[in-house]
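agent: user wants the structure for Transcriptional regulator, GntR family from Lactiplantibacillus xiangfangensis. delegating to structure tool.
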Amino acid sequence: MEWVKKYLYEQVAEQLAVAIRKGNYADHQKLPAESDLAKKYGTSRLTMRKAIDVLQRQHVVVKDRNRGTYVLAPMMPEKISSGVDGLSGFTEVALKMHLHPETRVLRLTKLTVVPEHVQAALQVAGDEPLWRIERLRLIDQQPMTVEQLYVRIATLPDLTISEASGSLYAQLEETLTIGYASQELEAILMDARIANLLTVPTGAAGFLSHAVTFSVDGYPILYDDSYYRSDKYTFHNILYRHH
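agent: tool returned. relaying tokens verbatim.
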């Protein structure tokens, strides 16, 4: 019986945590009384109290005996580290760090004239059409990176803006297996447009990543030029020595 009770309050805690992450309760907002929350979630006041205790241990809320329970603002790490867990997409990295990722599609264009460096990277003929997807990626509402992506239309033939705002890796892996990526990084000074999108001063230091993602059998499937804020991002690489 005790196991069932524990399972119930953990489930209620997860439901309440999801509501907080979705913004139903804002940072620093006082939560409704335990009795009101219990009624809303169809459980007992004791179960709700235990659920809130779980969220307090997870640093989602803070309880004050005299004032009530308040939502804690998530503590975003000083910098996001890309590459620590191998090849992961932006959304995957954010969720692993218990942060809230957001994507805004700035442009979704069918290209018939493809830049030569993209043709070479994706090994496409000059007349093969590609999608060009420009996206602004945010974490906890802070702009982090501007992506300019290129993928064969044949690979994602019916791509919509709604789909382009989701995980492209997840969509690609519906029909193929991603194997690895090749990435080149350069230090840059942000031009006015990119700086404005990333809410940094024009000329601020940043990273420009040129990357090609390959399928497990070595077929190039995605090319991207991505601009990263250097005050928010680091890159982690493991380098092997040839013998």
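agent: one observation worth passing along. The CA atoms of residues 19 and 25 lie 7 Å apart.
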